[in-house]
Amino acid sequence: MMLVNGRRQCFLDAADRAVSYGDGLFETIAVVRSRPALWEAHLARLRLGCQRLGLPTPELDLLDSDARALLDGVDAGVLKIVYTAGSSGRGFRRGACSPTRILSVSPLPEYPRAWWQEGVDVRWCALRLAQQPRLAGLKHLNRLEQVLARAEWSDPRVAEGVLLDQNECVIEGTMTNLFVLVGEQLFTPMLDEAGVRGVMRGRVLELAAELGIPCSEVRLSRAQMLEADEVFLTNSVIGVWPVCRLEGHSVPQRTLARRLQARLQADEHVAVWV
Amino acid sequence: MMLVNGRRQCFLDAADRAVSYGDGLFETIAVVRSRPALWEAHLARLRLGCQRLGLPTPELDLLDSDARALLDGVDAGVLKIVYTAGSSGRGFRRGACSPTRILSVSPLPEYPRAWWQEGVDVRWCALRLAQQPRLAGLKHLNRLEQVLARAEWSDPRVAEGVLLDQNECVIEGTMTNLFVLVGEQLFTPMLDEAGVRGVMRGRVLELAAELGIPCSEVRLSRAQMLEADEVFLTNSVIGVWPVCRLEGHSVPQRTLARRLQARLQADEHVAVWV
Question: Using an 8 Å Cβ cutoff, are A100 and A12 in contact?
Fold first, then answer.
Protein backbone atom coordinates (compact mmCIF):
# COMPACT_ATOMS: atom_id res chain seq x y z
CA MET A 1 0.00 0.00 0.00
CA MET A 2 1.36 3.36 -1.01
CA LEU A 3 0.37 7.02 -1.10
CA VAL A 4 2.19 9.50 -3.36
CA ASN A 5 1.39 13.07 -2.30
CA GLY A 6 -1.67 11.67 -0.57
CA ARG A 7 -2.99 9.77 -3.59
CA ARG A 8 -3.27 6.02 -3.68
CA GLN A 9 -0.85 5.13 -6.48
CA CYS A 10 2.37 3.19 -6.81
CA PHE A 11 4.14 5.22 -9.47
CA LEU A 12 6.15 8.40 -9.55
CA ASP A 13 7.06 11.05 -12.10
CA ALA A 14 10.19 9.61 -13.74
CA ALA A 15 11.65 13.15 -13.72
CA ASP A 16 11.55 13.24 -9.91
CA ARG A 17 14.91 14.31 -8.48
CA ALA A 18 14.94 11.20 -6.27
CA VAL A 19 15.33 9.18 -9.48
CA SER A 20 17.89 11.49 -11.10
CA TYR A 21 20.08 12.38 -8.11
CA GLY A 22 18.80 10.67 -4.96
CA ASP A 23 17.75 14.19 -3.97
CA GLY A 24 15.75 13.49 -0.83
CA LEU A 25 15.46 11.69 2.50
CA PHE A 26 13.69 8.70 3.98
CA GLU A 27 12.43 7.31 7.27
CA THR A 28 11.77 3.69 8.21
CA ILE A 29 9.32 3.36 11.08
CA ALA A 30 7.96 0.42 13.05
CA VAL A 31 4.16 0.12 13.13
CA VAL A 32 2.89 -1.02 16.54
CA ARG A 33 -0.86 -1.55 17.02
CA SER A 34 -1.58 0.60 13.95
CA ARG A 35 0.55 3.48 15.20
CA PRO A 36 3.97 4.64 13.91
CA ALA A 37 6.43 4.12 16.78
CA LEU A 38 8.65 7.06 17.77
CA TRP A 39 6.72 9.16 15.26
CA GLU A 40 7.77 12.52 16.67
CA ALA A 41 11.44 11.53 16.62
CA HIS A 42 11.19 10.39 13.00
CA LEU A 43 9.50 13.63 11.96
CA ALA A 44 12.11 15.65 13.85
CA ARG A 45 14.92 13.88 12.00
CA LEU A 46 13.16 14.37 8.66
CA ARG A 47 12.76 18.09 9.41
CA LEU A 48 16.43 18.39 10.37
CA GLY A 49 17.47 16.56 7.21
CA CYS A 50 15.39 18.96 5.11
CA GLN A 51 17.11 21.92 6.73
CA ARG A 52 20.54 20.49 6.04
CA LEU A 53 19.73 19.64 2.41
CA GLY A 54 17.92 22.94 1.81
CA LEU A 55 14.57 21.23 1.13
CA PRO A 56 11.24 22.82 2.11
CA THR A 57 10.01 21.76 5.55
CA PRO A 58 7.58 18.85 5.22
CA GLU A 59 3.95 19.55 6.05
CA LEU A 60 3.60 17.46 9.16
CA ASP A 61 -0.19 17.39 9.13
CA LEU A 62 -0.12 15.85 5.64
CA LEU A 63 2.39 13.19 6.71
CA ASP A 64 0.22 12.53 9.73
CA SER A 65 -2.98 12.12 7.75
CA ASP A 66 -1.25 9.97 5.12
CA ALA A 67 0.12 7.72 7.86
CA ARG A 68 -3.30 7.39 9.50
CA ALA A 69 -4.92 6.48 6.19
CA LEU A 70 -2.26 3.85 5.43
CA LEU A 71 -2.10 2.30 8.89
CA ASP A 72 -5.81 1.86 9.40
CA GLY A 73 -6.19 -1.84 10.25
CA VAL A 74 -2.44 -2.58 10.06
CA ASP A 75 -1.48 -4.11 13.40
CA ALA A 76 2.27 -4.43 12.82
CA GLY A 77 4.54 -3.61 9.92
CA VAL A 78 6.98 -1.09 8.52
CA LEU A 79 6.00 2.40 7.45
CA LYS A 80 8.38 4.10 5.07
CA ILE A 81 8.43 7.78 4.17
CA VAL A 82 10.39 8.95 1.14
CA TYR A 83 10.56 12.74 0.88
CA THR A 84 12.10 14.09 -2.31
CA ALA A 85 12.95 17.45 -3.88
CA GLY A 86 10.21 16.75 -6.45
CA SER A 87 10.31 16.93 -10.22
CA SER A 88 12.59 19.16 -12.20
CA GLY A 89 14.23 19.45 -15.57
CA ARG A 90 17.81 18.33 -16.19
CA GLY A 91 20.56 19.87 -14.07
CA PHE A 92 21.72 19.82 -10.49
CA ARG A 93 20.19 23.22 -9.69
CA ARG A 94 16.90 22.72 -7.86
CA GLY A 95 15.00 25.90 -8.78
CA ALA A 96 11.50 26.20 -7.31
CA CYS A 97 11.04 23.00 -5.37
CA SER A 98 7.74 21.19 -4.92
CA PRO A 99 8.59 18.11 -2.84
CA THR A 100 7.12 14.66 -3.32
CA ARG A 101 6.12 12.57 -0.31
CA ILE A 102 5.77 8.82 -0.69
CA LEU A 103 4.41 6.79 2.20
CA SER A 104 4.18 3.02 2.03
CA VAL A 105 3.58 0.18 4.43
CA SER A 106 5.05 -3.31 4.20
CA PRO A 107 5.01 -6.42 6.40
CA LEU A 108 7.57 -6.82 9.16
CA PRO A 109 10.70 -8.57 7.89
CA GLU A 110 10.87 -12.18 9.09
CA TYR A 111 14.04 -12.56 11.10
CA PRO A 112 14.62 -15.59 13.39
CA ARG A 113 13.48 -14.95 16.96
CA ALA A 114 16.90 -16.21 18.11
CA TRP A 115 18.46 -13.04 16.67
CA TRP A 116 16.84 -11.07 19.51
CA GLN A 117 17.21 -13.73 22.16
CA GLU A 118 20.61 -15.25 21.48
CA GLY A 119 22.19 -12.62 19.28
CA VAL A 120 23.33 -12.25 15.69
CA ASP A 121 26.37 -13.18 13.63
CA VAL A 122 27.98 -10.17 12.01
CA ARG A 123 30.92 -9.69 9.66
CA TRP A 124 33.31 -6.92 8.68
CA CYS A 125 32.55 -5.28 5.35
CA ALA A 126 35.42 -4.69 2.92
CA LEU A 127 33.93 -1.44 1.62
CA ARG A 128 35.06 1.66 3.52
CA LEU A 129 32.53 4.46 3.95
CA ALA A 130 33.52 7.81 2.45
CA GLN A 131 33.71 10.77 4.81
CA GLN A 132 31.34 13.60 3.91
CA PRO A 133 30.45 15.88 6.84
CA ARG A 134 27.77 17.63 4.76
CA LEU A 135 25.77 14.40 4.52
CA ALA A 136 26.88 12.59 7.69
CA GLY A 137 24.07 11.61 10.04
CA LEU A 138 21.34 12.09 7.43
CA LYS A 139 19.08 9.31 6.20
CA HIS A 140 19.34 10.54 2.63
CA LEU A 141 18.61 8.68 -0.58
CA ASN A 142 22.25 8.28 -1.75
CA ARG A 143 22.74 4.71 -0.59
CA LEU A 144 25.02 3.03 -3.12
CA GLU A 145 27.64 2.41 -0.43
CA GLN A 146 25.13 0.40 1.58
CA VAL A 147 23.97 -1.47 -1.53
CA LEU A 148 27.56 -2.43 -2.38
CA ALA A 149 28.34 -3.38 1.23
CA ARG A 150 25.20 -5.53 1.52
CA ALA A 151 26.19 -7.33 -1.69
CA GLU A 152 29.39 -8.55 -0.01
CA TRP A 153 27.68 -11.54 1.60
CA SER A 154 24.76 -13.83 0.88
CA ASP A 155 24.94 -16.28 3.82
CA PRO A 156 21.51 -15.86 5.43
CA ARG A 157 22.98 -16.76 8.83
CA VAL A 158 24.96 -13.51 8.82
CA ALA A 159 22.58 -10.79 9.97
CA GLU A 160 24.65 -7.70 9.38
CA GLY A 161 27.94 -6.30 8.12
CA VAL A 162 29.93 -3.71 10.06
CA LEU A 163 31.27 -0.74 8.12
CA LEU A 164 34.42 1.24 8.82
CA ASP A 165 35.35 4.59 7.33
CA GLN A 166 38.50 5.36 5.37
CA ASN A 167 40.35 6.05 8.64
CA GLU A 168 39.48 2.52 9.85
CA CYS A 169 37.02 3.84 12.44
CA VAL A 170 33.97 1.65 13.09
CA ILE A 171 30.85 3.58 12.01
CA GLU A 172 27.74 1.38 11.79
CA GLY A 173 26.10 -1.65 10.24
CA THR A 174 24.65 -1.49 6.72
CA MET A 175 21.18 -0.97 8.22
CA THR A 176 21.89 -0.58 11.95
CA ASN A 177 23.74 1.56 14.45
CA LEU A 178 26.16 -0.06 16.83
CA PHE A 179 26.89 0.15 20.55
CA VAL A 180 29.65 -1.42 22.65
CA LEU A 181 29.69 -1.84 26.39
CA VAL A 182 33.12 -1.74 28.07
CA GLY A 183 32.85 -2.35 31.80
CA GLU A 184 29.94 -0.15 32.86
CA GLN A 185 30.45 2.36 30.05
CA LEU A 186 28.56 2.42 26.79
CA PHE A 187 30.11 3.74 23.56
CA THR A 188 28.73 4.40 20.10
CA PRO A 189 30.53 5.81 17.05
CA MET A 190 30.56 9.54 16.34
CA LEU A 191 28.61 10.19 13.17
CA ASP A 192 29.95 13.59 12.18
CA GLU A 193 31.78 12.34 9.07
CA ALA A 194 29.81 9.27 7.96
CA GLY A 195 26.86 7.14 9.01
CA VAL A 196 23.17 7.57 9.74
CA ARG A 197 21.98 9.02 13.04
CA GLY A 198 19.31 6.39 13.74
CA VAL A 199 16.14 7.24 15.62
CA MET A 200 16.49 4.02 17.64
CA ARG A 201 20.10 4.97 18.37
CA GLY A 202 18.77 8.21 19.86
CA ARG A 203 16.16 6.34 21.91
CA VAL A 204 18.79 3.89 23.23
CA LEU A 205 21.01 6.82 24.25
CA GLU A 206 18.06 8.20 26.25
CA LEU A 207 17.31 4.82 27.82
CA ALA A 208 20.95 4.29 28.79
CA ALA A 209 20.89 7.66 30.55
CA GLU A 210 17.69 6.66 32.38
CA LEU A 211 19.35 3.40 33.44
CA GLY A 212 22.31 5.35 34.81
CA ILE A 213 24.74 3.99 32.20
CA PRO A 214 27.14 6.65 30.94
CA CYS A 215 27.33 6.68 27.15
CA SER A 216 29.68 8.60 24.88
CA GLU A 217 30.10 9.08 21.15
CA VAL A 218 33.65 8.16 20.23
CA ARG A 219 35.99 7.28 17.37
CA LEU A 220 35.79 3.52 17.76
CA SER A 221 38.51 1.17 16.55
CA ARG A 222 38.08 -2.40 15.46
CA ALA A 223 40.29 -3.51 18.37
CA GLN A 224 38.06 -1.72 20.90
CA MET A 225 35.04 -3.46 19.45
CA LEU A 226 36.76 -6.85 19.71
CA GLU A 227 37.58 -6.23 23.38
CA ALA A 228 34.05 -5.13 24.35
CA ASP A 229 32.02 -6.82 27.08
CA GLU A 230 28.87 -6.58 24.99
CA VAL A 231 28.02 -5.38 21.48
CA PHE A 232 24.57 -4.68 20.13
CA LEU A 233 22.91 -3.26 17.03
CA THR A 234 19.87 -0.99 16.79
CA ASN A 235 17.38 0.25 14.27
CA SER A 236 13.76 1.30 14.30
CA VAL A 237 12.42 -1.97 12.92
CA ILE A 238 14.43 -4.49 14.93
CA GLY A 239 14.89 -2.46 18.09
CA VAL A 240 17.99 -4.11 19.59
CA TRP A 241 19.94 -7.19 18.47
CA PRO A 242 22.76 -8.47 20.69
CA VAL A 243 25.84 -9.53 18.70
CA CYS A 244 27.00 -13.04 19.57
CA ARG A 245 29.59 -13.62 16.85
CA LEU A 246 31.82 -11.27 14.93
CA GLU A 247 33.51 -12.74 11.86
CA GLY A 248 33.36 -16.18 13.50
CA HIS A 249 34.69 -15.10 16.91
CA SER A 250 32.46 -15.22 19.98
CA VAL A 251 31.46 -11.89 21.46
CA PRO A 252 30.72 -11.86 25.21
CA GLN A 253 27.16 -11.04 26.20
CA ARG A 254 25.91 -9.33 29.29
CA THR A 255 22.36 -8.20 29.88
CA LEU A 256 22.10 -4.66 28.59
CA ALA A 257 20.72 -5.51 25.14
CA ARG A 258 18.01 -7.68 26.71
CA ARG A 259 17.13 -4.98 29.25
CA LEU A 260 16.81 -2.43 26.46
CA GLN A 261 14.61 -4.80 24.44
CA ALA A 262 12.28 -5.22 27.43
CA ARG A 263 12.05 -1.50 27.94
CA LEU A 264 11.37 -0.79 24.24
CA GLN A 265 8.63 -3.42 24.24
CA ALA A 266 7.03 -1.98 27.36
CA ASP A 267 7.00 1.44 25.68
CA GLU A 268 5.56 -0.02 22.44
CA HIS A 269 8.50 1.39 20.51
CA VAL A 270 9.15 -1.87 18.66
CA ALA A 271 6.88 -4.19 16.72
CA VAL A 272 8.57 -7.50 17.50
CA TRP A 273 7.77 -9.06 20.89
CA VAL A 274 10.59 -11.38 22.02
CA MET B 1 9.58 12.70 -24.56
CA MET B 2 10.41 9.64 -22.56
CA LEU B 3 10.52 5.86 -22.87
CA VAL B 4 10.49 3.63 -19.78
CA ASN B 5 11.56 0.10 -20.72
CA GLY B 6 10.62 0.97 -24.29
CA ARG B 7 7.12 2.22 -23.48
CA ARG B 8 6.07 5.81 -24.00
CA GLN B 9 5.30 6.91 -20.43
CA CYS B 10 6.65 9.47 -18.00
CA PHE B 11 6.23 7.62 -14.73
CA LEU B 12 8.13 4.96 -12.86
CA ASP B 13 7.37 2.32 -10.23
CA ALA B 14 7.81 4.23 -6.95
CA ALA B 15 9.51 1.10 -5.53
CA ASP B 16 12.31 1.37 -8.09
CA ARG B 17 15.71 1.21 -6.43
CA ALA B 18 16.70 4.45 -8.17
CA VAL B 19 14.12 6.18 -5.96
CA SER B 20 15.02 4.34 -2.76
CA TYR B 21 18.81 4.24 -3.00
CA GLY B 22 19.99 5.93 -6.19
CA ASP B 23 20.84 2.39 -7.29
CA GLY B 24 21.77 2.99 -10.91
CA LEU B 25 23.69 4.97 -13.49
CA PHE B 26 23.04 7.63 -16.09
CA GLU B 27 24.38 9.03 -19.33
CA THR B 28 23.90 12.49 -20.80
CA ILE B 29 24.43 12.58 -24.55
CA ALA B 30 24.41 15.33 -27.17
CA VAL B 31 22.02 14.80 -30.08
CA VAL B 32 23.53 15.96 -33.39
CA ARG B 33 21.41 15.71 -36.55
CA SER B 34 19.13 13.16 -34.85
CA ARG B 35 22.03 10.95 -33.78
CA PRO B 36 23.46 10.45 -30.29
CA ALA B 37 27.04 11.77 -30.36
CA LEU B 38 29.82 9.50 -29.09
CA TRP B 39 27.17 6.80 -28.66
CA GLU B 40 29.63 3.91 -28.47
CA ALA B 41 31.68 5.64 -25.80
CA HIS B 42 28.57 6.33 -23.72
CA LEU B 43 27.44 2.72 -23.99
CA ALA B 44 30.92 1.52 -23.05
CA ARG B 45 30.93 3.68 -19.92
CA LEU B 46 27.43 2.48 -18.99
CA ARG B 47 28.54 -1.12 -19.40
CA LEU B 48 31.63 -0.54 -17.27
CA GLY B 49 29.52 1.14 -14.59
CA CYS B 50 27.17 -1.85 -14.54
CA GLN B 51 30.12 -4.18 -14.03
CA ARG B 52 31.45 -2.12 -11.15
CA LEU B 53 28.04 -1.83 -9.45
CA GLY B 54 27.16 -5.48 -10.10
CA LEU B 55 24.19 -4.63 -12.32
CA PRO B 56 23.17 -6.79 -15.29
CA THR B 57 24.73 -5.68 -18.57
CA PRO B 58 22.33 -3.42 -20.46
CA GLU B 59 20.83 -4.83 -23.65
CA LEU B 60 22.47 -2.57 -26.17
CA ASP B 61 20.06 -3.31 -28.98
CA LEU B 62 17.15 -2.16 -26.80
CA LEU B 63 18.95 1.07 -25.88
CA ASP B 64 19.68 1.54 -29.55
CA SER B 65 16.10 1.05 -30.69
CA ASP B 66 14.77 3.26 -27.88
CA ALA B 67 17.18 6.01 -28.89
CA ARG B 68 16.19 5.75 -32.55
CA ALA B 69 12.51 5.97 -31.67
CA LEU B 70 13.03 9.01 -29.46
CA LEU B 71 15.37 10.91 -31.75
CA ASP B 72 13.35 10.58 -34.92
CA GLY B 73 12.94 14.17 -36.14
CA VAL B 74 15.00 15.69 -33.27
CA ASP B 75 17.75 17.72 -34.92
CA ALA B 76 19.61 18.77 -31.75
CA GLY B 77 19.05 18.19 -28.06
CA VAL B 78 20.09 16.13 -25.08
CA LEU B 79 19.41 12.42 -24.76
CA LYS B 80 19.51 11.07 -21.24
CA ILE B 81 19.67 7.41 -20.24
CA VAL B 82 18.89 6.39 -16.66
CA TYR B 83 19.63 2.72 -16.00
CA THR B 84 18.51 1.43 -12.60
CA ALA B 85 18.59 -1.81 -10.61
CA GLY B 86 14.80 -1.96 -11.03
CA SER B 87 12.08 -2.50 -8.47
CA SER B 88 12.53 -4.36 -5.24
CA GLY B 89 11.10 -4.61 -1.76
CA ARG B 90 12.66 -2.80 1.20
CA GLY B 91 16.29 -3.50 2.03
CA PHE B 92 19.70 -2.85 0.52
CA ARG B 93 20.05 -6.38 -0.81
CA ARG B 94 19.26 -6.47 -4.52
CA GLY B 95 18.06 -10.02 -5.01
CA ALA B 96 17.04 -10.94 -8.55
CA CYS B 97 17.49 -7.76 -10.51
CA SER B 98 15.35 -6.66 -13.43
CA PRO B 99 16.79 -3.30 -14.49
CA THR B 100 14.75 -0.31 -15.61
CA ARG B 101 15.91 1.82 -18.53
CA ILE B 102 14.58 5.35 -18.93
CA LEU B 103 15.46 7.29 -22.05
CA SER B 104 14.37 10.89 -22.49
CA VAL B 105 15.17 13.74 -24.80
CA SER B 106 15.17 17.42 -23.89
CA PRO B 107 16.09 20.66 -25.68
CA LEU B 108 19.70 21.88 -25.64
CA PRO B 109 20.32 24.14 -22.64
CA GLU B 110 20.54 27.80 -23.68
CA TYR B 111 23.96 29.06 -22.67
CA PRO B 112 25.38 32.34 -24.02
CA ARG B 113 27.48 31.85 -27.15
CA ALA B 114 30.22 33.92 -25.49
CA TRP B 115 30.81 31.05 -23.06
CA TRP B 116 32.33 29.07 -25.92
CA GLN B 117 33.97 31.99 -27.69
CA GLU B 118 35.28 34.13 -24.84
CA GLY B 119 35.17 31.70 -21.96
CA VAL B 120 33.29 31.25 -18.71
CA ASP B 121 33.47 32.59 -15.17
CA VAL B 122 33.91 29.85 -12.60
CA ARG B 123 34.10 29.80 -8.81
CA TRP B 124 35.47 27.52 -6.11
CA CYS B 125 32.87 25.44 -4.31
CA ALA B 126 32.99 25.26 -0.51
CA LEU B 127 31.80 21.64 -0.45
CA ARG B 128 34.60 19.07 -0.55
CA LEU B 129 33.92 15.83 -2.42
CA ALA B 130 34.15 12.65 -0.36
CA GLN B 131 36.68 10.06 -1.47
CA GLN B 132 35.15 6.71 -2.38
CA PRO B 133 37.27 4.58 -4.74
CA ARG B 134 34.40 2.10 -5.19
CA LEU B 135 32.25 4.79 -6.85
CA ALA B 136 34.93 7.09 -8.28
CA GLY B 137 34.72 7.65 -12.03
CA LEU B 138 31.16 6.35 -12.31
CA LYS B 139 28.22 8.43 -13.46
CA HIS B 140 25.97 6.94 -10.79
CA LEU B 141 22.71 8.27 -9.41
CA ASN B 142 24.03 9.34 -5.96
CA ARG B 143 24.45 13.02 -6.73
CA LEU B 144 23.62 14.90 -3.52
CA GLU B 145 27.13 16.34 -3.40
CA GLN B 146 26.62 17.94 -6.80
CA VAL B 147 23.16 19.19 -5.83
CA LEU B 148 24.57 20.83 -2.67
CA ALA B 149 27.56 22.26 -4.55
CA ARG B 150 25.34 23.71 -7.31
CA ALA B 151 23.17 25.36 -4.64
CA GLU B 152 26.17 27.40 -3.49
CA TRP B 153 25.65 30.10 -6.13
CA SER B 154 22.78 31.62 -8.05
CA ASP B 155 24.57 34.33 -10.08
CA PRO B 156 23.69 33.33 -13.68
CA ARG B 157 26.97 34.85 -14.92
CA VAL B 158 28.92 32.12 -13.10
CA ALA B 159 28.87 29.08 -15.36
CA GLU B 160 30.41 26.48 -13.12
CA GLY B 161 31.83 25.70 -9.68
CA VAL B 162 35.08 23.80 -9.22
CA LEU B 163 35.11 21.02 -6.63
CA LEU B 164 38.05 19.86 -4.54
CA ASP B 165 38.25 16.67 -2.52
CA GLN B 166 38.91 16.40 1.19
CA ASN B 167 42.68 16.47 0.50
CA GLU B 168 42.25 19.81 -1.31
CA CYS B 169 42.94 18.26 -4.71
CA VAL B 170 41.04 19.78 -7.63
CA ILE B 171 38.70 17.12 -9.06
CA GLU B 172 36.11 18.56 -11.48
CA GLY B 173 33.26 21.02 -11.97
CA THR B 174 29.75 20.21 -10.72
CA MET B 175 28.82 19.08 -14.26
CA THR B 176 32.12 19.20 -16.14
CA ASN B 177 35.63 17.78 -16.18
CA LEU B 178 38.56 20.11 -16.10
CA PHE B 179 41.86 20.45 -17.98
CA VAL B 180 44.81 22.77 -17.45
CA LEU B 181 47.56 23.56 -19.92
CA VAL B 182 50.98 24.38 -18.47
CA GLY B 183 53.48 25.27 -21.17
CA GLU B 184 52.91 22.61 -23.81
CA GLN B 185 51.67 19.99 -21.32
CA LEU B 186 48.05 19.22 -20.58
CA PHE B 187 46.90 17.95 -17.18
CA THR B 188 43.59 16.67 -15.89
CA PRO B 189 42.74 15.39 -12.39
CA MET B 190 43.07 11.71 -11.53
CA LEU B 191 39.60 10.35 -10.82
CA ASP B 192 40.45 7.23 -8.84
CA GLU B 193 38.99 8.54 -5.56
CA ALA B 194 36.27 10.98 -6.61
CA GLY B 195 34.70 12.52 -9.71
CA VAL B 196 33.04 11.37 -12.92
CA ARG B 197 35.08 10.04 -15.84
CA GLY B 198 33.34 12.07 -18.53
CA VAL B 199 32.95 10.74 -22.05
CA MET B 200 33.98 14.13 -23.45
CA ARG B 201 37.01 14.06 -21.13
CA GLY B 202 37.99 10.79 -22.78
CA ARG B 203 37.48 12.25 -26.27
CA VAL B 204 39.58 15.30 -25.41
CA LEU B 205 42.38 13.05 -24.14
CA GLU B 206 42.31 11.26 -27.49
CA LEU B 207 42.27 14.54 -29.45
CA ALA B 208 45.17 15.92 -27.40
CA ALA B 209 47.18 12.82 -28.27
CA GLU B 210 46.31 13.29 -31.97
CA LEU B 211 47.45 16.93 -31.75
CA GLY B 212 50.76 15.80 -30.24
CA ILE B 213 50.04 17.39 -26.86
CA PRO B 214 51.19 15.19 -23.95
CA CYS B 215 48.47 14.84 -21.33
CA SER B 216 48.66 13.27 -17.88
CA GLU B 217 46.24 12.54 -15.08
CA VAL B 218 47.59 14.11 -11.90
CA ARG B 219 46.74 15.18 -8.36
CA LEU B 220 46.09 18.83 -9.15
CA SER B 221 46.37 21.60 -6.57
CA ARG B 222 44.49 24.85 -6.53
CA ALA B 223 47.82 26.71 -6.92
CA GLN B 224 48.71 24.72 -10.04
CA MET B 225 45.35 25.63 -11.53
CA LEU B 226 45.89 29.32 -10.77
CA GLU B 227 49.29 29.25 -12.50
CA ALA B 228 48.04 27.50 -15.64
CA ASP B 229 48.45 28.97 -19.13
CA GLU B 230 44.95 27.83 -20.10
CA VAL B 231 42.06 26.16 -18.30
CA PHE B 232 39.02 24.58 -19.91
CA LEU B 233 35.98 22.54 -18.99
CA THR B 234 34.39 19.66 -20.87
CA ASN B 235 31.19 17.67 -20.95
CA SER B 236 29.17 15.85 -23.57
CA VAL B 237 26.59 18.61 -23.98
CA ILE B 238 28.81 21.70 -24.05
CA GLY B 239 31.90 20.14 -25.59
CA VAL B 240 34.62 22.55 -24.41
CA TRP B 241 34.33 25.86 -22.55
CA PRO B 242 37.49 27.92 -22.02
CA VAL B 243 37.70 29.42 -18.53
CA CYS B 244 38.32 33.19 -18.59
CA ARG B 245 37.80 34.06 -14.92
CA LEU B 246 38.27 32.05 -11.76
CA GLU B 247 36.72 33.55 -8.64
CA GLY B 248 37.10 37.01 -10.16
CA HIS B 249 40.72 36.60 -11.29
CA SER B 250 41.60 36.53 -15.00
CA VAL B 251 42.78 33.21 -16.38
CA PRO B 252 45.12 33.39 -19.39
CA GLN B 253 43.81 31.92 -22.62
CA ARG B 254 45.70 30.30 -25.38
CA THR B 255 44.16 28.50 -28.32
CA LEU B 256 43.80 24.86 -27.31
CA ALA B 257 40.18 25.05 -26.16
CA ARG B 258 39.19 26.72 -29.43
CA ARG B 259 41.11 24.17 -31.49
CA LEU B 260 39.39 21.34 -29.65
CA GLN B 261 35.98 22.95 -30.21
CA ALA B 262 36.66 23.16 -33.95
CA ARG B 263 37.69 19.54 -34.08
CA LEU B 264 34.65 18.34 -32.08
CA GLN B 265 32.37 20.30 -34.40
CA ALA B 266 34.00 18.88 -37.50
CA ASP B 267 33.48 15.38 -36.09
CA GLU B 268 29.84 16.17 -35.16
CA HIS B 269 30.54 15.25 -31.57
CA VAL B 270 28.86 18.36 -30.18
CA ALA B 271 25.48 19.93 -30.85
CA VAL B 272 26.40 23.60 -30.45
CA TRP B 273 28.10 25.29 -33.42
CA VAL B 274 30.20 28.25 -32.28
Answer: yes
Helices A39-53 and A60-71, packing angle to 10 deg: 140
Compute the average pLDDT of residues B86-112. Answer: 94
Q: Are A179 and A204 in contact (CB under 8 A)?
A: yes
* Burial status of residue A23 (CB atoms within 10 A of its CB: 0-12, 13-18, 19 or more): buried
Q: Is B80 part of the annotated catalytic residue set?
A: no
Chain B residue numbers with beta carbons less than 8 Å from the beta carbon of A23 are 143-144, 147
Confidence label for A272 from pLDDT (cuts 50, 70 and 90): confident
Q: pLDDT class for B90, splitting at 50, 70, 90?
A: confident
Q: What is the amino acid identity at position A20?
A: S
What is the secondary structure of A160-208 as a DSSP string? EEEEEETTSEEEEESS-EEEEEETTEEEEE--SSSSB--HHHHHHHHHH
Distances (CA, A) of B253 to A120, B115, B161, B245: 62, 13, 19, 10
Question: Residue B134's closest chain A neighbor by CA?
Answer: A127
Mean pLDDT value across chain A: 97
Which residues have CB under 8 Å from B219's CB, separation 6+? B167, B169, B189, B190
Q: Of B253, B215, B221, B262, give the one whose Cα is nearest residue B118.
A: B253
Sheet containing A24-32: order of strands = A7-8, A2-4, A100-106, A76-84, A24-32, A35-36
Catalytic choice (A27, A84, A100, A139): A139
Q: Establish whether this prediction's ipTM goes over 0.95.
A: yes
Q: Which residues, 6+ apart, have CB-to-CB distance to B176 below 8 Å?
A: B160, B198, B233, B234, B235, B238, B241
Contact B14 A54 (CB under 8 A): no
> Which residue stretches of chain A are H helix?
17-21, 39-53, 60-71, 114-117, 144-150, 199-210, 222-226, 256-266
Q: Looking at beta carbons, which residues of chain A come within 8 Å of B22?
A: 21-22, 141-144
Handedness of CA A206, A211, A215, A220 (dihedral sign): negative
Report the C-alpha gap between B178 and B226 in whole angstroms: 13
Fill in the amino acid letter for B133.
P
Is B152 in the active site?
no
Supply the Cα-derived Rg of chain B in whole angstroms: 19
Residues listed for chain B: 274
pTM, 2 dp: 0.97
Residue ranges of A 126-165 with Cβ closer than 8 A to chain B: 127, 129-132, 134-135, 140-151
CB of B232 within 8 Å of a chain A CB? The answer is no
Which residues pair with residue A217 across a beta bridge? A188
